[in-house]
Each structure stands twice: as structure tokens, then as C-alpha cells.
Amino acid sequence: MTSPPLKPATATATGGKSGEVDLYEVRQKIYPRAVTGWFAGWRWLLVWLTQIAFYGVPWLTWNDRAAVLFDLEARRFYLFGTVLYPQDFIYLTGLLVISALALFLFTAVAGRLWCGFACPQTVYTEIFMWIERKVEGDRQKRMKLDKGPASARKLGLKVLKHALWIAVALWTGITFVGYFTPIRELLSHIASLGTGPWETFWVIFYGFATYGNAGFLREQVCKYMCPYARFQSAMFDKDTMIVTYDRDRGEPRGSRSRKADPAALGLGSCIDCGLCVEVCPTGIDIRKGLQYECIGCTACIDACDQVMDKMGYPRGLIRYDTENGLANGWNRSQLWRRVFRPRVLVYTGVLAAITIALFTHMALRVPLKVDIIRDRGTLGREVEDGLIENVYRLQFINSAESARRFRISVDGIDTIFVASDPEVAVDAAGNRMVPVRVRVQPGKGAPGSNTIRFSIVDTADPSVTVDEKSTFYVPR
User: Fold this and answer.
1) Which of 8, 30, 75, 80 is deepest in the core (most CB within 10 A)?
2) Are residue 324 and residue 336 in the same domain, yes or no?
3) What's the domain range around 430?
4) Do residue 119 and residue 173 come from a single domain?
5) CB-based burial, 362-398: b 16+ in 10 Å, e otherwise
6) Domain CATH number, residue 430
7) What is the pTM of this model?
8) Using only C-alpha atoms, what is the Rg of the chain?
9) What whole-number distance in Å separates Cα of residue 449 and Cα of residue 413?
10) What is the pLDDT of residue 335?
11) Number of structural domains in the chain
């Protein structure tokens, strides 16, 4: 992994004397050139898929509510037909573990696939650059416009571009908040200027972050702010497929006519057109080898393949390959045999096992949770007829979206029974705290604490049942 050295500057950023050297290289604005091709098509397909999902899901409804809603105030998280509570935090942990293992797997197989095709920074940068090209033109026109003097046309184009950027950014912020406040309700609040302080803050914050990251910071996020660029090399090995330049075939590089024989001129296949640099969103030259700034977007592959087609040369001067494959001249079958190596198979097996276990557990989970709390104010007391009574508080959490009625029973001590109403009704996706009195006949149970078990069963669906342990105190 290489990085270009810092360049000397004629003056420091703070206005120092000529000849001094800056500690940091002054950023040069990058003007990526538009590119088409097979990989560009895949990249735009993922832009469409991710944004249709992101912008569309908040509008879906399920049982007269938002299909996906993270209701922080009510501490309920709705995922279509599933209702999760803070007690279900283990599922979020499982999803994070799955995401991390998937990242490790994809990186071990084909490098920075996530960065180049599906990362939000890449996706929104693509959208913002598309708007920029439509308003200001492609690379040369944008460079000429920025270098040109101020004019009414230049001001109008800049205002239009930024207005469109701000519109996309604000709608992105509104959509993000729409996952926490039903989006139809949120839009009505915005229309009446009645949004709450947190809703207002997050719409503006998320919109501003999108506007700044995709419109201005762009490659700076990938190069300096994202930690993945720094530790990706720990997940690479010599059998990881990466974007590579075939130096043996391309060097020595040089310009020539289409009809010229490169062998006769002593040249390689690279005509030194510079298109691979012009299309790169981070401004690197892939011909210098793998660099941490490379996000694996494959724009250079599409650009180079088009040049090879025009010159009548075979494609693949810049291509997906591995270090071992490039060094040994492996064909595709040899390459793929090494891609599916033990490391990749272990990642795949662990990822599949955790994914299957998590979603199986979610599918089979009982839509009822019960927390039992003993009334510690009175450990045990004698009531009428000499019966010994303990009082409990049972908290019912019904995660189903239909009202349910449950019957409470208890066992563990001879003659033990529920003295209060044994049936409890709980609203759909609701919770209820119920006091429950439990009694035993005198002389039953050992003095002190006795283990008992509560059984809660749905009266309409006996398959929905929960058993919980507790203790019954018999006075000495």
C-alpha cells in the first residue's frame, strides 16, 4: 500500500516565507471524468437499489402503521410484522456481527467492494457528481468554469447546482428522520412548521452532513476520515482480488497511432492517455500500484477497456486480479480456485451459521415476555385461614400486533395457587404491570425461600407460553 509523498509548497498555509514546506499537502480539487462501462452499470444499479430502498421503505405501511419504524419514545421497533423492544438488543448485536463478518468476507475476496459500490459516501457522491455534470458539464467544462472570471452565467450555474444539492440533502435528512417519526406525520409537521426540536435538529444535521460530505469533502472522507482505508490491508492477502495494473504488459508506456505496432516501437500496451487518472474519484494513478486511497470503484477499468477497444488491443490492462495471479500469469479458473481458499471458506461458514441462527431465533421467538418482581416490602405474610401469601408484580410485554389474554398458574410447592385474578389482558404491542398474589396452605414449603415457577399461557393459542422461575418466602 503506497501513498504519494507530501509536496513542498512555495508558502505555508499561514502565509510563511517562500521555500518553507507545509506539514500537510494543500488539497487539489478533483474533477472526475464521466465514465461508462460494465462496472459503471453495476455501480449505478446499486445506487438505484440502495436509494429506492432508503427513500421508499418509510412510505410502506403494515397493519395501519409504518412498516419500518424505530419509535424511541415508546421504545418499540417495528420491522414489518416483527415488534422488538430494548430487551431484544441481542438481535442488533447479531446484525452488527453479521455486518462485520460480511465486510471481512467481501474484503478478503475482492477488496473494497463495499467502498466502491454501496457505501453511502460513494452513492451520494455519485448522485451529486451526476447533478454537477448535468448543470456544469463534464470535466473540461467544469474546470474551465471554475478557472473563468465571475459572470452572471457562472453564478447562475453555481446557484442551480447548490440548490439541487440542498434539495437532495434535505430530502435525505427528512427520509432519515422518517424512520423514527412516521414520514407522513413528519411532512405534515414540516408543512405546519410544527416539528419538534429533535426532529428539526436531525433533519438539518443529516441533510448538512450529506451536503458537505457528497458535495465538498468527497474523497477526503475516504482518504482521511474513514478508518476502513487504514486497516483494510490487514484483511488483504496476495490472493485478494484487487484493481491492478498489468505493468509487464503496459510498460514502457507511450503514445502512438492506432496503426503503429507497439512491439516495433518498443512500447507496451499503455498509451499513457491518462484517462485512468481522470476518471478516478480520489485522483490517484492506479499504475503506481495499490494505494490506500483506492476505493475499488473500478472506474479506471472501464476507462482503460474503452481505450484498449479503440486501439484494437485486448482488454484487461487494468483489471481485477490478485498479486499472485498477476505475478504467475494465472488464468481465470486458476484465479478463482485460489479465491475460495480456507480463510474465505471459514468466513463464509461462520457468517452462514450466525445468520441462520439469528433469523431462525427471530422466527421462532415467542411474542411474549414476562418479568417477575417480588414485592420486597413484605417477604411473606399470614392472611385469612392461616394461608401464607407472597405478592409479585408481573410485567407483560406483548410483541404481537393483536390483543392477547393470558392465564397465570404457579407450581413448585404443594397447594400453591394464584389468589388474584389468574387472567390478564394485554393490548396489541403493549405492556402491562399486574400485581399477583400467590398463597400456600400453612405448613407447606420449607421455612425461608422456596423455588417456584410461574407459567403464563395464551388462552387462545396454547403454543404461546412462558415459564419463569421465582422464589416464595415462608416465614420461619
Assistant:
1) 30
2) yes
3) 368-474
4) yes
5) eeeeebbbbebebeeeebbeeeeeebbbbbbebebbb
6) 2.60.40.10
7) 0.84
8) 32
9) 11
10) 86
11) 2
